[in-house]
Structures
1.
Amino acid sequence: MDKKVIFSREEMYELNVERLKERGVELEAIAEIAYHQQSRYIPNVSFEVCLESVKKLLSLRDIFHIVQLGIEIDRMTEQGLFRSPIQDIMKADLGMFGIDEIIGLAVAQNYGAIGQTNFGDIDVNKPGIVAKLNSDGKGDKPECHTFLDDIVGAIAAAASTRVAQIMSEELAHKE
Ligand code: MG
């Protein structure tokens, strides 16, 4: 039988939720970052809209492929399955590696310049689950989250930007 490679949005969403959970990431923790980022600009922003945006993003095909690939690279790095030097570079989560940030930017890019600056903010300030992933994967620890911290940060940035767009649209209809 042929292996399944095309998934519906519901299936992609479910598979992403499952994998993220396996790696210690709950959707609420991603929505939390989006919520805090947007509440600096929109005081009445709702957590529910942030969570709904995270869920929507996790059903998109591009994001599905990125989440699934990023998590597999991290897992295989934990198991030492790559060859050196890239194995050691990814395990060390070297600041100058940069490919994890390129992937993060690719996700954030779907939400334009604001999406990218929102990702930059999260990448530099490392709020909530991003800080946890980053520190849990650093040093001599067995865990590796080199790709996942950026992917999670980028989904939070994209969700936060999407919320800003929804709020602007609502405002435009009121005026
Ligand atoms: Mg990283």
2.
Amino acid sequence: MKPDLFEAPDYYNIDDLLTEEHKLIRDAARAWVKRDVSPIIEEAAQKAQFPKSIIPGLAEIGAFGPYIPEEYGGAGLDQISYGLIMQEIERGDSGVRSTASVQSSLVMYPIWKYGNEEQRKKYLPKLATGEWMGSFGLTEPDHGSNPAGMVTSYKDKGDHYLLNGAKLWISNSPFCDVAVVWAKNEEGRIHGLVVERGMEGFSTPETHNKWSLRASATGELIFQDVKVPKENLLPNKSGLGAPLGCLDSARYGIAWGAIGAAMDCYDTALRYSKERIQFGKPIGGFQLQQKKLAEMITEITKAQLLALRLGQLKNEDKATSAQISMAKRNNVDMALKIAREARQMLGGMGITGEYPIMRHMMNLESVITYEGTHDIHLLITGLDVTGLNAFK
Ligand code: TGC
Ligand code: FAD
């Protein structure tokens, strides 16, 4: 892959709206991605290997639990800092951001919010340093967009719970030390349980042959009569709203992350358009190519403003789930469209691993599907504005 010459676009001087702390945190993450992610990520993706060597670096830039209080090992940052870190990581690769999203919003968040003090103290500090890695099991083979239908369940056996079922499409599963798993009790109520690697009957086979998120490990979580200690049940929230609450946090991070992928595609295409000569002049001098670049920077700028405003609302604890859905849907769609256009601007070179665009494009096909598909988020907005449920 060519050297990483990334320069972040800021067409509307959005930096002026950030604090000095935001910029320091963002710049540290940006520098780390340039130094430690860019040189290795193409090979990791080509080989379909999660680069475990970057785990300590992710912890150092605060990517594991950015907004979790410091007393539990988190970075104690605000929501805009969290967003900026996700943006910078996904500028490197969506799969690396996935690993951080899952660890922070889908594993640390539920333990912090729905767990008791013993659980927080046991798990959060080790998750914050990356000593333990986590996964989040909601999706099942027959229940993706409709998690309420899940069949994974547990029975009360007196001194422990007996867990049975299977989860599919689980990021980090092949190497996770702990999994936050959503399962129904005998009354059909959904609860979260922390399942630990090594528990008998618990296995995590990897899903192979992905054309997307190849630098992220994806797999299953299989439970065959797993004895889960009673103290591993998250006691403070139950029902579908519990996992969906975690998704709100992760979807918010994705709304920022997608901007990073889009910025990298735009920046690469812009530079290429000034260097690549055809018909005696740089291709950036042709109107058709300028149309693409002008539309890209316009959409990136709109997405930046949407994410920043959402971050302000999150900081004030005022962001609604529907507002988060709108930002996730818009910004991922924006990034995927930019990746497709940018790839075309590089002609044949666009399909190679010399440039990051094709990798971003393929990754974004997963990002537009997970954490609620593009269609599901549209229906959430539809329900919010009409009050009429079109899911069922
Ligand atoms: P519905 O009846 O609407 O709601 C059930 C209960 O949940 C509450 N609720 C929410 N709470 C918090 N945040 C949200 N976003 C919420 N949305 C709904 C709701 O108030 C209700 O509470 P209560 O107390 O009344 O019971 O539920 P439904 O069954 O009709 O489903 C609604 C729907 C379709 C929107 C929901 O199921 C959905 O979002 N489906 C998409 C599934 C999804 O996003 N899966 C993601 C799996 S994890 C993942 O993809 C990780 S990828 C990670 C990576 O690698 O980065
Ligand atoms: P389906 O729900 O079967 O949907 C298929 C199509 O039908 C979609 O286009 C959808 O929009 C449409 N559709 C569904 N319902 C409706 C409706 N009511 N109206 C209109 N259209 C509808 N899950 C986890 O729990 N943890 C993870 O860590 C995780 N990581 C993932 C990593 C990757 C790489 C991928 C690809 C997925 C991951 N997922 C994870 C699962 C992801 O959240 C699901 O794939 C997603 O929610 C969609 O579910 P599905 O694939 O079963 O599609």
